[in-house]
Amino acid sequence: MHELRRHALLSALSAITVATLLTTGCSASGSPSTVDKAAATTAESPEPGAVEEQLAVVSAPDGDATPTAVADANAVDQGKAKKSALKVASYDRKSGRAVISAPSSSAASDAEPSATPSESSSDKGSNSDSGSDSGTDSGSGSNAGTDSGAGSAADSGDAKSKPAVAVGDVIASAPAPGAPDGVLAKVTEVVETAADGGTTVETEPAKLNSVLGEGEADGTVPVDPSTMKVDPLVQGVKVSWAKTGDLTFGPEGAKLPLGSLRIDVGAAVETAPGAPASAAASVEGFVQLAPEVAFSYDGSGSGTGSSPGGAFLGLTGDWASQWSLKGRAAGSTDGKPIRIPFAELHADPVIQVGPVPIVVNLDLVCYFQVEADGRVTVDVEQDLKGDFRVGGNFTWAKGWQGVSESNMSGEPLKTTVTAVGDVKAAMGAEATVGLYGTVGVTADVAPYLRAEADATAEGSADGTGSATGSWALYGGIDLTGTLNLQLSIFGTPIFQTKIPLGALHEEWLLTKGEASTSTP
């Protein structure tokens, strides 16, 4: 009997050992199994959210390919939006009422595949993981509808009875009907759900940190010059641009660098009172820009609903201009320079920050400005090249601060200065950069020419005398601007007054000369 019990016990132990070996996959050599390695890796990996996500900053795809992003109020990782197949069908900025259209049943099936007992995990396709990858998705149109985000209520089979979004969800959308500046709004009330899955909701403005969460992003996105709307303000304005695959050349036949916008202008300037007809004043030349939107965001350590640790919004770009001032220009008006805008430009580029489409509102007013004493007659021309960077930068240590940087240099192409006096003329651009229809940064980039002439004369009773004169031509740049209250859209503390960017003034000598005459 004891022998039978002993035999049964050994058999049971052998069965347990075999089962353990089969379960763990332990090899005869004693090396760690694949399962053991996976378990060790899982144990060593940080918890989700422990490492901040680096979000790509790229140009968003055009049209319907631009995805919507939705931050689910009921998600574990609140404040982190996911790419969604939902669309803003209409939006009323005054009332905040919006209609959110749900994807078609086929799109919903693609966005949220319904698992069935007969469906194996390998048959679900790569879309089943789109939610975890959406944070690093660059926003290419190929996967624009793969994740319904908070709109998972629009699952196939029950799309008619459930609203597309819920109270507390935050929606970020590219320009939509009624919202040419895009939508960044939080749902405050679900008003109605239509049979087709569309949901009417009440909203209120939201902050960027409610969709970017604790992620990090840093990058610049070029503005496609062909998308800029140009409104000439004086006669003689000509616009040309160049971009990849579609070259357009300047009026003078010069080839533009890719991604550049060029504006040529020639206009008369008011002549000083009493000036002869031969001293008629005019400005002629061109401004060439390759603007880029600069955006950065640091949500690390901010926590749900808290302000981000850092942010930047600004405009950078390459600048080139070649222009001339001729004649005897009028003096200042009421102590202020005479400014003549000659073109207004507007664009609403959409940049993709991770899964979130961010609509940037860019306005440029190109102008020339003359400040003169009405005595000196000039014929001067300057070729100027360089770059600039303006914007607002936020850190917890210093709050919002202006950024004004420029690296420009020029050379004279023509210099003639007669008589005595001073004149300063600029051909510049006033730029305004905002997000979702709010003004954030206003900057005035004004490269200029300044000419000054001086003379002394000596005479005697016998009619003899001499005169000597000197002149100098300078190039320079004035860069000024302000930060506006609406930069609080980042979720940073609100400041009560506009903050100056901090004026930048640089000047360099282009050329100078002297002359002398004597009478017998």
Automatic annotation (TrEMBL):
PROSITE patterns linked: PROKAR_LIPOPROTEIN
Region annotated Disordered, chain positions: 27-160
Entry keyword Signal: yes
Leader sequence residues: 1-28
Source organism superkingdom: Bacteria
Keywords noted in UniProt: Signal
Protein name: Lipoprotein
Organism expressing this protein natively: Streptomyces phaeolivaceus
Lineage: Bacteria, Bacillati, Actinomycetota, Actinomycetes, Kitasatosporales
